[in-house]
Amino acid sequence: MDLITINSSSSSGRNKIRSRKKSAFLTLKKLLFRATSEVKLGQITPPSRLLKILTVFSTLDQVGETITKAAEKLGFEITTCNSDKTALEEYQQRLHDLVIIDSRSPKGINYDTLCRSLRNTKGNQHTVVVAVVKKSAFEKDDNTIGSLLDSGFNRCMVETTNIVASGNELILLRHSDIRPLAQHATTQGLYSALDKCKDIVVVTDDKYNLQYINRACEKQLGLRQEEVLGRPLQDQLMFDPVQVNPMGSSLLRGKEWHGSITLKKKPLETILASCKAVPFACAGRLPTHFVLVFDLNPTDQLNMLAQSRGSIHSIRRGSTDVRSVGSDFLRRTSLAKLNALPLEAPITKVVGLIDQARENSNQNPSVVQLLDKVEDILKSCELYSTHVKEDLRIKSDEPVVSDLITALLSKQPQPTLSGSSRRSSNDSSVFRQSRGGLLKVPTVIKELLDNCLSWEFDIFRLEDLTKKRPLQYLGMSLFNHFEVASVLNCDEKTLFNWLTVIEANYHMENSYHNSTHAADVMQATAGFLEKDRMKSIIEQLDEATTLIAAAAHDVDHPGKSSAFLSNSDNQLAILYNDVTVLESHHAALTFKLTLGDERINIFKNLDRETYKIARANVVDMILATEMTKHFEHLAKFVNVFCTKSSSSDLESEVSDFAPLSIPENVTLVKRMMIKCADVSNPTRPLRLCVEWARRITEEYFHQTDEEKSKGLPVVMPMFDRYTCSIPKSQIGFVDYIINDMFEAWNAFIDMPELLAHMRQNYIRWKELDEQGHTTLSDIQKLQATALMNPMFPQKPTKGE
Questions:
Q1: Does the annotation list 356 as a binding residue?
Q2: How many CA atoms lie within 13 A of 397 on its CB side?
Q3: What whole-number percentage of the chain has pLDDT above 90?
Q4: Is 514 known as a binding-site position?
Q5: Where is the PDEase domain positioned along the sequence (predicted)?
Q6: Is 458 annotated to bind ligand?
Q7: How many angstroms separate the CA atoms of 28 and 72, rounded?
Q8: Residue pair 580/725 in contact by the 8 Å Cβ criterion
Q9: 103 vs 286, which has greater pLDDT?
Q10: Mind telling me the catalytic residues?
Q11: CA dist list (Å): 396 to 393, 401, 403
């Protein structure tokens, strides 16, 4: 049995290779070929054959002979040449795996020219070219090695007459250079397969610049590869560049995307294709390339129109019935009336373009059917509204997740499907010292408030120190920080009175929807407002009304969901016709309280126009917290702000801020801001996140208990205190609601700590679920351990 031992602990500190037989090269040869499953580039393996080596020495000296003997021992098939011309001829005939050229003497082989000639030969990319150099070449700082590599050499090897050293050098070349190139060569088989594929296959870089198109793409779209490579995907293939936006929002986060894309076809034609886009990373974890596969099968296109999957869930499902001739006549008549109007809305233009496309596609019934389907979808008045997907209800592995998400998003107050009880969160940044005010703040509270704009701010500590009146103290600090009194032209006493009344109208007995939650959302909103991106677009009046909306957004919350109120015939549900019950009540009560007493009317000194703007802002932001419109707000925000430009940095910066000049888009930002503040608890430090989860779960449990005791429909049956898994509910909430929203919000506002905490907490919930810590009692026990840190660490008293 042959054996090689490697000793790394010798006194000299050098590794020694020892063999128990005289012929070390038999062992080295076995070592060379024994590993057949090294790191692969894929499943295809290169052929097993003798490697071909070409040595080029003008004079075969001792160094050349040593290399030749070592190669023979290792089983290489060797060709030896002594001139440039014969070496090039041999190589062009046999395409050797390894070429070794003597570069030690400028009077010998013209190694530079020879190497460049080899590199101009077809198939050279699979050959390793090595230059033999003198030892001094590695010791001098004269760029000798660099110039050789620039000429096309893969590496350099130092001259040696030691046959063992030469053998080891060849083994290294085999493993580190020749084998990877052979593996890489197998990818040509994949390119051949792609060129025979009927589907269109496109590869782009992370900026959507085309890097590969297959022959089907050239044939179907009338393109030539050399004309489009390196150019933007949007310009070359996309009929509507905006279609890239929803796809990009998924791909840039490492997620696959399915959807329908309209492709351009020469000359002046379009094709509707089903697209599957997949990101992959050549290096690191972030996507470096995108693979897009377009299926032109008309059968699948109808299904793709009905549903498009990505970071934003399917906007709407619709019928795929083919329209009758009669209905087609009515559509054309309606279109004629529409075109006769003196005003032209964007939807009018869209319908007109669809009609033109239909006229040009009379010979293709499948295209006409698809265009009819598009028009049906566009007729919806809720283009961005998203219903709970069928697969969420049917395929969810965890009933508690399905219950929670369905209850949060459903619009109708039906048993087990409705509800609009919301979740909460906390936020922060960097704090500027407030100037003080009427409220006498104890030192310990003041010290805590000094850090009130930190994302790690402990709102529960403030709740404890203020005896459950955190909104007064935190609210005054934030109002002073943002100079709200000056903006509203009112005194600080009025602001303080307003906070006092608003806080008094929160229900202290609620475990979650109380004034601590309001203070938490207000603090989060203030943290967002401190970011440079927000400062560049939000005016002072917007800052003031945003903080006011955050403080009052859940005032008089009963601790039950809108579905519960509707099912129990609550007066609020009757008053608001079962539509946006809680949010409408919060907004209305805010102004009823504010305007009902001069002592707390913070708007009394505003002129009428300014007041109307302030009121509209507050109402709009409070209504934006309704979860049934979550995907509508998110889809609009992503469509406007979360796109990736492939232009220059300057152009990208200009286009980045251009949408913010539109008032409607500023409104989108404010809605997204308060939405994120309202449900940001999964993005807080772990101990805060867990406490918020415990509180919302307890509130849901109370609702389920009351529904059962009163014989009402149970909105969320899985939120039963005896069977509910808290970790599973949190995992599902992050998967379906939080993740996409905060990915988009972070891309806009640049707060990486949001995602860092969210991901860490997600992993921790997974661990708790696997460990069986699922009940409320389990979570409470864990909160008291060092595992999560005590929620309220004990501070030493003065006597200690």
A1: no
A2: 4
A3: 37
A4: yes
A5: 437-772
A6: no
A7: 12
A8: no
A9: 103
A10: 513
A11: 6, 7, 10
Q: What's 443-783's CATH class? A: mainly alpha
- Residue 517 known to bind ligand: yes
The values of phi and psi at residue 42, to 5°, are: 180, -165
pLDDT at 480: 95
One fold for both 192-306 and 443-783?
no
The model's pLDDT over 190-240, given as tens digits with 9 standing for 90+, comes to: 888 888 888 999 999 888 889 999 998 888 888 888 888 888 887 777 666
Give the tens place of pLDDT for each residue, 764-780.
999 888 888 888 888 88
Q: Cβ distance 114 to 101 under 8 Å?
A: yes
Q: Which residue has the higher pLDDT, 398 or 218?
A: 218
- CA-nearest of 551, 472, 555 to 510 is 555
Would you say 586 is a known binding-site residue?
no
Domain boundaries, the chain: 1-34, 40-185, 192-306, 317-379, 443-783
Question: What is the radius of gyration, based on Cα positions, of the chain?
Answer: 35
Beta strands 210-213 and 98-102 are: unpaired
Local structure of 21: helix, strand or coil:
coil
Query: What pLDDT, on a 0 to 100 scale, did the predictor assign at position 678?
Result: 96
CB-based contact 636:384 (threshold 8 Å): yes
Tell me the three state secondary structure of residue 416.
Answer: coil
Q: From its phi and psi, is residue 41 left (phi > 0), alpha (psi between -120 and 50) or beta?
A: alpha
209 is in an annotated binding site: no
The most confident of 129-138, 343-352, 462-471, by mean pLDDT: 462-471
The token pair that represents 714 in the structure block:
């149970």
Is position 678 annotated in a ligand binding site?
yes
pLDDT of residue 142: 73
Looking up tokens 């661990």, which residue turns up? 767
Write a three-state SS string for 195-262: HHCCCEEEEEECCCEEEEECHHHHHHHCCCHHHHCCCEHHHHCECCHHHHHHHHHHHCCCCCEEEEEE
* DSSP secondary structure letter of residue 283: S
pLDDT band at 486 (very low <50, low <70, confident <90, very high): very high
Task: Look at the alpha carbons of 505, 509, 514, 515 in this order and tell me if their dihedral is positive or negative.
Answer: positive
Strands 210-213 and 257-265, by their bridges, are unpaired
The fold for domain 192-306 equals Beta-Lactamase (3.30.450)
Q: Indicate the SS3 state at residue 272.
A: strand
Q: Which two tokens stand for residue 536?
A: 């560049």
Region class of 725: left (phi > 0), else alpha (psi between -120 and 50), else beta: beta
Region label for 205, one of left (φ > 0), alpha (ψ between -120 and 50) or beta (otherwise): beta
